[in-house]
Amino acid sequence: MIKSVLVIDDDPDILDALRFLFEDAGFNVETMTKNGEAVIKKVKNTPPDVIILDVLLSGHDGRHLCKQLKSQIDTKDIPIIMISAHPDAQKTSLDAGANSFLAKPFDIFELLSQVEKFTTA
Amino acid sequence: MKEVLSKASASPLQHQPMGINIITPKRGKNISRNKGIKKTFQSYEGMSDFNFFMERLFLWASIIESSDDAIIGKNLNGIITNWNVGAEKIYGYSASEVIGKSITIIYPDDKKDEFHQVMGKIRNGEHINHYETERVKKDGSIIHVNITISPVRDLGGDIIGASDFARDITEKKHLETNLQYLYKAGEVLSSSLDYQKTLETVAELAVPHIADWCSVEMLDDNGSLDLVAVAHKDPQKVAWARKLRENTQTDLSASTGVPNVLRTGKPEIYSEISEELLKKTVKSKKEYALLKSVGLTSVIIVPICVKGKPVGTITFVSTETKRRFNQNDLDIAEELADRAGLAIHNAKLYKELQEAVQIRDDFIAIASHELKTPITSLKIYTQVLQQHSKSNGWNQLLPSFNKINVQIEKLMRLIGDLLNVSKVQSGRLELEWSTFNMYDLVKEIIESIQPTSTQEIRFNGKTNLTVYGDKDRLGQIIINLLTNAIKYSPKSDKIVVKLNQNKQIIFVSVQDFGIGIDKKYLSHIFEQFYQVNDPEEKTFPGLGIGLYISREIARRHGGDITVDSQKGQGSTFTLTLPKKRASKNI
After folding, report:
1. I need a surface site. Which of A34, B183, B339, B524 has the fewest CB within 10 A?
2. ipTM
């Protein structure tokens, strides 16, 4: 069965690159730059197998979104990997409930192995 | 008369402390009991004893009268018996006003105790020489005097009173206190960049020796006047003055006073606030009554200028001490205001600098974030393509992908260095403390760097070495030392890394066999933005911040980085870390 990944970042180039990466690796990819409400709605309607979430979204804090998803019964079990160009954001991301954190620019094998780990668990 | 004088100067009388005695003879005493005087009288034949005595008396009286010093006679009860012209000038009372009254009339309230001490000594026949104290004038103003008090004896040698010789040293004293004040206030002003706080201290230091009141007012950004500081020795009065100020609007168009000084940048001095002047300046009866009640005597207002522009004022007011400010006081006040202006200017420059540093740091933080985003994309595409090349067996492409990856790592390190240098400079480099195995860290770093190096990196060291510190930052240091070693030894084939320890210290050394560093540059290589720039040598590009950041990080751990190098032989850089947990506060 094909696994699905939802990538949320405010930079369209990053979304493009991650789409390229995950499609190449055989995933179904959805990307979003939308605000928190739209993301929650989307996740509830079509839950992905894993979420890649940037820490800083324009106007929205990815950690806040992570907390919201992790606090709702129908979304809390979806693994979330947070990514950021601020390596300092690791602790706060994990505190917000993220399953793991990767500093940009990350190694794709690292990202893929984590996705693999969370989706097969 | 002349002859008498010259003879008199040879007379033994001169050596007797009797000057005052003669003009205050005790009635009914037999003069002949004093042998010295009797002898003297007998030695001037042809002049009657009486005439000679009167001549002498007149001479002494005129000497006393012509003195600028106050010369006062008093009996053992302290009742004034004699009061010369000098005393009239200094104390403001005429002889007829004070003769028959107690000497304590010229003692300030807080010095009344002195009277009994002085009289006690006089009764014991003691002299009090050149003693500095304060006295109060008829108009209530306080003056500083230097007094010599001596017992006065009658012809029989009994102590019957005392003579006071007093010199007015108020001017000298004020000069001294002014200079002391200027010195102290100057120190305070240059001690801190918080000028609001320092101006408060400056005002407090001024009272009560310079002025009874001192206030500092500054124009704020909106052009209205703020009372920055007000001082008086009585805190209740300060509270009263602040309250008064809150309830009164300063008329910034006023033609005199603080508004005028602010407008013109010229000081104002009112040595003596006359009734006339007071009436002219006040705007209401209430204000008049208020100023009368505080006993306004003398005022100095000086402008505080920053780059020639008045930004505030310092006001000195004399009230209860009735001190009259003069040119000298104004000079001191202006000097002080100049220093205050300089202090404010410096504080503003510092604030601007801080803001500029903040803007730079914010910019670097944003810029590094923005730079990392395209690098992230670049790395994703590169790695995906590299992976495909591998699985498709396009081996001729693989070295190029490796090179792209090395360049991406380089870019990342440069961005990281830029971010770190701004953090180090502004003291915002935060360390994440943990205990970790140093051997594993060094090994891991060498493994990641080896593919980028043509030199073989040899490593030996103790495997069980744990360190308490920031693993990532210490890793950065080792990466920096290794990349430098690779960069500066292009023609050599190896780099040697050693991990060692003694009782107190852990050493990580990185040795290369490259170009080395000339002695004359060695002391500079840890400076930020420093690049060895020798026309005879090949230049190596770089930002010149790697070693600076590395040493800062090492020092924050309580350690250091040292170098040992010989030109043409290579260099050894050694990171030292204390084994004992370094304090987080370093």
Report:
1. B183
2. 0.91
Contact B227, B250 (CB under 8 A): no
Residue A21 with chain B: CB contacts under 8 Å = 380, 384
Which of A24, A105, A107 has the CB atom closest to B372's CB atom? A105
Which of A9, A18, A21 is the best substitution to test chain B (most B C-beta atoms within 10 A)?
A21
> Three-state SS for B26?
coil
Question: Averaged in consecutive runs of 10 residues, what is the pLDDT profile of chain B (586 residues)?
Answer: 40 39 43 46 60 86 87 93 93 94 92 90 92 91 92 91 93 86 83 81 84 91 87 87 76 83 93 84 79 86 92 91 88 89 85 84 85 92 94 91 88 84 79 89 92 90 88 92 92 94 91 90 82 69 82 92 91 91 48
Contacts of A13 in chain B (CB under 8 A): 373-374, 377
Residue B377 contacts A where some CB pair is shorter than 8 Å: yes
* Contact status, residue B267 vs residue B296, Cβ threshold 8 Å: no
Instruction: State which residue of chain A sits closest to B375, comparing Cα positions.
Output: A105
Query: How far is residue B383's CA from residue B363's CA, in Å, rounded to a whole number?
Result: 30
pTM of the model: 0.56
Flag whether residue B405 sits within 8 Å of chain A, measured between CB atoms. no
